Amino acid sequence: MARALSLLYPIAVFEDRYSGVYSGGGWIAVAECDTEEANHRNRFWVAFDGTHGDDMEAATFGGLIPLFKWIAVGNSPEHAIANLMEKNKVLTEDEDEDDLDDLIAVVDESKDESAEGK
Fold first, then answer.
1. Residue-wise pLDDT tens for the chain (118 aa)?
2. Residue among 13, 10, 6 nearest 76 (CA)
3. Which of 2, 29, 34, 59 could be bridged to 91 by S-S, CB 3.0 to 4.6 A?
């Protein structure tokens, strides 16, 4: 059964600190990024314990990606989102793709680091 794209919102897209060495893609899309899983918000777990962790954390994280429907990787932000949609069997005919741009938060490593340093 296909899900509506809006059920994946909000979607956050992160640039992989290790350029996909462990995750398999340079960008990581996180569906329902405000959802709590194991007492961690998905987006924070990805940002701080996953792709932006040390080598061991990043390797463990990369191995877990195939197990979760709420996370996918790609070679660009758009590719990561497309893979997320495919992983969740999303039909796009029922959705306005222009709305997707309004609801995606693209977070790159440099913005996070500069915000933390201030």
1. 456 777 888 888 989 889 899 999 999 998 887 776 654 566 777 777 777 778 888 888 888 888 888 899 999 999 999 999 999 887 555 444 544 454 444 444 444 554 565 5
2. 13
3. 2
